[in-house]
Design brief:
- This protein is mainly alpha-helical.
- The chain has one domain.
- The protein is built from 10 helices and 4 strands, in the order βααααβαααββααα.
- The chain has helices spanning about 25-30, 55-85, 95-105, 110-135, 175, 215-245, 250-275, 300-305, 335-345, 355-370; strands at about 20, 140, 280-285, 285-290.
- Helix 2 (about 55-85) packs antiparallel against helix 4 (about 110-135) and helix 2 (about 55-85) runs antiparallel to helix 6 (about 215-245).
- The longest helix has 30 residues, at about 215-245.
- About 50% of the residues are buried.
- Mean pLDDT is about 90; it is low at about 1-15 and about 20-45.
């Protein structure tokens, strides 16, 4: 960058964090060709971000999605450094053999899947920002907030992070939601947790230090936590894209949202399948964390069998209509703000600054204010 971001003053200027330029050092490596002609200077000062040749609403939607993808890339990079495949496609880290082995209990191909999910999110953030720049619109850069600590386990890079994977409260209600044939969160319905103790307290999804690598039951509990967190994150993206697509007006923007969204669904189905292989156990270092046998009561049976990974048909639009196999939820009102609240509630941003939350809230509110539908 030709300039550093301006320091925070008494009033937060979110435009300080919205720029015409590359999104991150890692993204720059992958997306250098895409962004070769983009400007890397600070956006011009003004009351609102520049939309260029896009409507304000479409640009706002893409900026929020770019921010979400930057955050996803950050968390997946941490998973990949310790439990995935490190190569030129997803650089950084050197792996943790005990953690990788514990993840492999869920599936022998977990390292490859983690790598590919990481690469996908990285290309999403680079592409969306590149498209915004190509239309003369401001892009998103969150590098100033890369201040959270890395894991100190062998294999992790010691760099600043945007997200915190070491104190998570994981919502596992997606497990029961996608197996329900009578309820839909768009109707206000609620769902039981598949792993209730994961939704209480704070739990690491990556080893914090090498002390977390033993005993075997403890590192397996961390890997199980990661396995469910993978599904939690990707079901959120699966819903976010169709929810915001309903507010898009430009057909190219709609094509982007409708083309990226289904890849999030592919990720979610993969992780839904792998979470079902998490072995039942009690964490020997944290006896409050218990992973139940998912094939036994109160789960189990035809409705909750672990190989049931395709969405059960359920109510949609009206209780008077036939049930339909769908992504759920997809209501558009407040979708971006809701997604941000969901990510915040799981502890993903523990340690972040107030400025970070203000910037993200502004981006989410702008996305939710976009007009509905193609004009």
């Amino acid at each position: 960058m030709t300039k550093r971001l301006n320091g925070l003053k008494t009033s937060i200027n979110r435009r300080t964090f919205v720029k015409n330029g590359l999104t991150a050092a890692g993204a720059a490596t992958v997306g250098a060709g895409l962004l070769a002609h983009g400007s890397s200077v600070l956006a011009q000062e003004g009351p609102e971000e520049r939309s260029g040749r896009l409507t304000e609403g479409d640009a706002a939607i893409l900026r929020f999605l770019a921010a979400a993808e930057i955050l996803e890339t950050d968390l997946w990079q941490q998973y990949n450094e310790l439990g995935g495949i490190q190569d030129s496609e997803v650089p950084g880290g050197s792996g943790s053999a005990p953690y990788t082995a514990a993840l492999a209990v869920l599936d022998a191909d977990m390292a490859q899947y983690i790598h590919d999910n990481t690469e996908d999110e990285l290309t999403h953030e680079v592409f969306i920002n590149a498209f915004l720049a190509s239309k003369g619109a401001d892009t998103v850069n969150l590098d100033e907030f890369r201040t959270l600590p890395s894991s100190h386990a062998t294999g992790a890079q010691q760099i600043g992070r945007l997200t915190n994977l070491m104190h998570l409260t994981v919502d596992t209600s997606w497990w029961t939601r996608y197996r329900s044939g009578t309820k839909n969160p768009d109707f206000g319905d609620t769902f039981d947790q598949a792993v209730p103790s994961l939704n209480v307290g704070r739990h690491p999804a990556i080893p914090r230090t090498d002390d977390d690598l033993t005993p075997s039951g403890h590192i397996q509990a961390i890997a199980n936590t990661a396995g469910f967190h993978f599904g939690t994150i990707e079901q959120g993206g699966t819903s976010l894209y169709p929810s915001l697509a309903q507010r898009v007006t430009d057909r190219d923007v709609l094509r982007i949202v409708l083309s990226i969204g289904p890849t999030e669904a592919m990720h979610f189905q993969t992780w839904s399948d792998k979470a079902g292989n998490a072995p039942p156990l009690t964490d020997p270092k944290d006896p409050t964390l218990v992973f139940p046998d998912l094939n036994s009561p109160p789960l189990g049976g035809e409705e909750f069998q672990t190989n049931l990974i395709m969405p059960e048909p359920t109510i949609f639009l009206s209780r008077k209509l036939p049930t339909c196999s769908i992504v759920r939820p997809t209501a558009t009102n407040g979708a971006a703000v809701g997604a941000l609240k969901f990510l915040t509630a799981m502890g993903l941003f523990i340690g972040q600054s107030q400025a970070f939350f203000e910037i993200m809230r502004d981006l989410a509110e702008d996305a939710d204010e976009a007009k509905i539908g193609l004009g």
